[in-house]
Design brief:
By secondary structure, this protein is an alpha+beta fold. The protein has helices at 7-20, 40-47, 89-96, 161-167, 224-234, 290-294, and strands at residues 52-57, 60-67, 72-77, 103-108, 122-124, 127-130, 147-152, 155-160, 174-178, 181-184, 187-188, 202-208, 213-218, 237-245, 250-252, 257-258, 267-272. A 7-stranded antiparallel beta sheet has the order 1-2-13-12-14-10-11, covered by helices on one side. A 5-stranded antiparallel beta sheet has the order 3-17-4-15-16, with no helix packed on it. Strands 6-5-9-7-8 form a 5-stranded antiparallel beta sheet. The protein is globular and about 45 Å long. The two termini are 33 Å apart.
């Protein structure tokens, strides 16, 4: 279990907040919450120890949460063992109980239907729950190329969906499909305007040159173009993927931030290595199908 000088007390405050907080109806704005009753000085001290930091790019404010393969593990989470979907970071944190101390941060991670089911490729703990979606259609997800964020044993990658389809044979430990791609091999998505009229709270993920995953959420409405340039120009991510907009939410336990609002679908959870060992563990070969053993997507 990860220990932290502030987190023991923080967990109790966190539990109290979870118990008293009710999910909002769809369409209501995200609420940014600092958990607990501590002073601004205490919260400021804790910010220095978080894996998330506030950054400014082209005059807009963002939060950049960094997962380092040497220190962190990444897993996808959708629901509990009974198949009930969490639908919010609050519900997921409540379900963790004392294991919430192991979470570095968590965020919504991919688009979904009205029931919270992923509409694209989704793998959790080596189990594929949804196949790759290469269909055409409306909306951001189908603004091609879209892409897949995936990884196994600390090697994390982002590929455009077609590249993933033709080049990735082994099923990863985790994976989520979303769209559009923001940055593709160092170039911005060809359909993105420099600063289009559509502005929203957005979140996404990019991989930098050191293999670290940057999970970024804007703290004010921004355009697709500005969001993509942040990944390419400031974070030096050769590939980056849009995860969602308007419903975007972050849980940063150390800084006592828990965003609530619209219902979520897939979530990405980043933990300190050694924590939440049951999340993302490889299943026994006895329960894998022949296709699994051969390494199918």
């Amino acid at each position: 279990m990860i220990k932290h000088p502030y987190l023991a007390a923080g967990l109790a405050m966190f539990a109290a907040l979870l118990a008293g907080c009710k999910d909002q109806q769809a369409g209501e704005p995200i609420i940014r919450t600092e958990i607990g009753k501590g002073s601004q000085d205490r919260v400021a001290a804790k910010k220095a120890q978080s894996d998330c930091k506030d950054v400014t790019f082209e005059g807009a404010k963002f939060t950049d949460c960094v997962a380092d393969p040497a220190k962190h593990r990444i897993a996808m989470v959708l629901g509990d063992e009974q198949g009930d979907k969490y639908r919010s970071l609050r519900s997921y944190g409540q379900a963790l109980g004392d294991d919430a101390l192991d979470v570095a941060f968590a965020m919504n991670a991919g688009m979904f239907d009205a029931e919270g089911k992923p509409i694209g490729y989704y793998v959790e703990n080596y189990e594929r729950l949804q196949e790759l979606n290469r269909a055409d259609g409306p909306g951001n997800f189908h603004m091609k190329p879209n892409g897949v964020f995936y990884g196994t044993n600390g090697k994390w990658e982002i590929r455009a969906a077609d590249s993933f389809y033709y080049n990735v044979g082994d099923r990863p430990e985790f994976g989520t499909q979303s769209g559009p791609m923001l940055v593709i091999n160092g170039e911005l998505h060809p359909q993105m305007q420099d600063d289009g009229p559509s502005k929203a709270i957005r979140n996404g993920v990019g991989i930098d040159g050191n293999g670290r995953a940057h999970f970024v959420i804007s703290n004010e409405p921004v355009s697709f173009g500005q969001f993509a340039r942040l990944f390419r120009d400031q974070l030096k991510a050769a590939n980056a993927l849009f995860l969602d907009g308007n419903i975007s939410a972050l849980w940063d336990p150390v800084r006592e931030r828990l965003d609530t609002g619209n219902s979520l679908g897939p979530m990405v959870v980043v933990t300190k290595r050694g924590g939440l060992k049951g999340v993302g563990a490889a299943p026994s070969l006895d329960v894998l199908t022949p296709a699994d053993k051969a390494g199918a997507q």
